[in-house]
Amino acid sequence: MTEQPARRLLLVHAHPDDESINNGATMARYAAEGARVTLVTCTLGERGEVIPPELRHLTGAGLAQERERELAAAMERLGVEDFGFLGGRGRYQDSGMMGTADNDNPHCFWRADVDEAARHLVEVILEVRPQVLVTYDDHGGYGHPDHIQAHRVAMRAVELAAETGWTIEKVYWNRVPRAVGEQAFARLHDDLPGLPFTKAAVLDDVPGVVDDLRITTEIDGTAYAAAKSAAMAAHATQIDVSGAYFALSNELAQPLFTTEYYQLVRGEHGENKETDLFSGIEGTS
Ligand SMILES: [Zn+2]
Predict the structure, then answer these.
(1) Is 15 annotated as a binding residue?
(2) CA of 218 to the centre of ligand 1 (A)
(3) pLDDT tens readout for residues 17-74
(4) Is the whole model's pTM more than 0.85, yes or no?
(5) Residue 106: which H helix or E strand, with range?
(6) Which residues contact 151 (CB under 8 A, 6 or more apart)?
(7) Do the Cβ atoms of 140 and 181 come closer than 8 Å?
(8) What angle separates helix 60-78 from helix 225-234, to the nearest 10 degrees?
(9) Ligand 1: distance of its center to the CA of 261 in Å?
(10) Residue 75 CA: distances (Å) to CA of 19, 20, 71, 207, 228
(11) What distance in Å separates the CA atoms of residue 126 and residue 48, rounded to the nearest whole number?
């Protein structure tokens, strides 16, 4: 077996771009610090709406290819080398937004058997042996079927891996503290006239917003803000970045958070307010 870095972080996401939006600074930080950072993306995101007019002809397989290229570029900007698709490229198709006909496609991720999908993730877990896993809450952060399914598959894989010989010590869900979100949106309203976006999103559009008390962990990504922003910009079909803000295909401006927040849902708190996902894990400091 090849020598592994002492700290190993696994992130499970639904589509290419979710990793950079949610965890770009965290991924860049741990990669820069020499940890093994592994990203598993569950679908190619081929049902995503495309922002740039010159790329709007891309759909289905063509969009999948483009988003795969975007993901590779984003990972280069974050310094992350270890990334792949759950069960191999194209194993699970993008389910589209909740309530659309795409949800009925038998090959879409939403229709996947959770245990079978989790077993693909267990293969990765047994190879990487991560101490820390990051994914979404049980609502998928904001209710997208692929995000809910990514949550289910990740949480099930944690259980299956433990039965098979590798216990992931800490599991985190992506979060945004409500007070931080409110402040950021207040700033956004002040800045909006100078931005290339005409309207602002609302805090309820942001995935994973919870009461501040539920936040266990805060990763200050100031040093990696440029890397995160560049990684998000690499997902050009999906994200329009402008300074401290960005918009998705709905063209509604929202804050780009360079400090990233988490809720520890499995494992022991390393300290009262953690500033390191690995805190308290033996042999990783
Ligand atoms: Zn997504």
Answers:
(1) yes
(2) 22
(3) 999 999 999 999 999 999 999 999 999 999 999 999 999 999 999 999 999 999 999 9
(4) yes
(5) none
(6) 135, 136, 137, 138, 139, 140, 173
(7) no
(8) 160
(9) 18
(10) 9, 9, 6, 22, 10
(11) 31
